[in-house]
Amino acid sequence: MRPRPGRLLVVGYAGPAFPDHLAGFAARWGLGGVIWFARNAPDRATAARQARRLEAALAEADPGSPALLLVDQEGGRVERIRDGVPRLPPAAVLGRAGPAEVARRVAAQARALAALGVDGNLAPVCDVVQPGESGAIGDRSFGPDPARAASCAAAHVRATGAAGLLACAKHFPGHGAAGLDSHEALPSVDKILDELDSVDLVPFRAAVAAGVPLVMTAHVRYPRVSASPATLCSRWIGGVLRGRLGFGGAVISDDLEMAALGGFGDPGEVAVRAVRAGCDLLVYGRVLRPDLDLEAVARALQRGVPAARLAEAAARADRLREAVG
User: Fold this and answer.
1) CA nearest 103: which of 153, 143, 57?
2) Which of 11, 71, 164, 194 is the most exposed place for a label (fewest CB within 10 A)?
3) pLDDT confidence of 324, banded at 50, 70, 90?
4) Does the active-site annotation cover 127?
5) Contact 186/221 with Cβ under 8 angstroms?
6) Domain extents for the chain?
């Protein structure tokens, strides 16, 4: 049986309550998960209540759904749930403190997120920040030293997993040298693979070795490796991430609403390219393009992705759900 393509989508929405139109979408196409922002969790009680209602709504709309509740809770300037979850300083501060402090602070954060009903935290940021970076990463990085960033990333992954939460290493293969913000344009990093391997890939290798179940791709182009940005590139996902680094988990895209991918076709075409390249889950935060037509994306995936590839991606999403019970 051909998997329903909505099982590959992770979708945001406005306000605390899960909207009826998304429940209807899940009933027709399936749904891989939702991503929360500050607008969805204004306080602890609302977050816990809405997480329970979300689970019930999806169980009814899409029985057996692997739908996950994900959140960007990096610390510093990227924290979506501000009430009821211990605040973390920016990763740059934690990086200077070292992996033991990372583990201590992240463990408390992850336990609180899990208690609210969150399944996964889209962290740690594994980008090694470098001169000329646009500021999109900045203090979200553990710092410019690849070895220290790697030890902190591994500590983050282990502490998150020990609390029963999914961790996610991002933004593969590295946004830390990009001179543009991928929200606004397509960055290009002029490095050969050996240069990336000795700097940018070091924290990702450590995260994979620590058992990270999710890796997020970067909408960044590395022209000396491939003409396509990493999110749309099978060489990066299949050849480097799965082949060279040995990653066996699920690959999730950065938000596909970002301007970086605007030159690669309409939303449906971009979604098909991303899944064919190796992405298993596609993020649509509904922040940059709240009116994006998810039905058109689902139809494009139905038509444009071979059944075997859809099944492979859906199976990886199912394993994520099993990992968090």
Assistant:
1) 153
2) 194
3) confident
4) no
5) yes
6) 12-323
Superfamily (CATH) of domain 12-323? Glycoside hydrolase, family 3, N-terminal domain (3.20.20.300)
Annotated active-site residue 318? The verdict is no
Instruction: Convert the pLDDT of each residue in 212-233 to its tens digit.
Output: 999 999 999 999 999 999 999 9
**List 145, 181, 183, 318, catalytic entry:** 183
Q: Quick check: pTM over 0.90?
A: yes
- The active-site residue out of 119, 139, 200, 254 is 254
Distance CA 206, CA 145 (A): 14
Structure tokens at 267: 């939303």
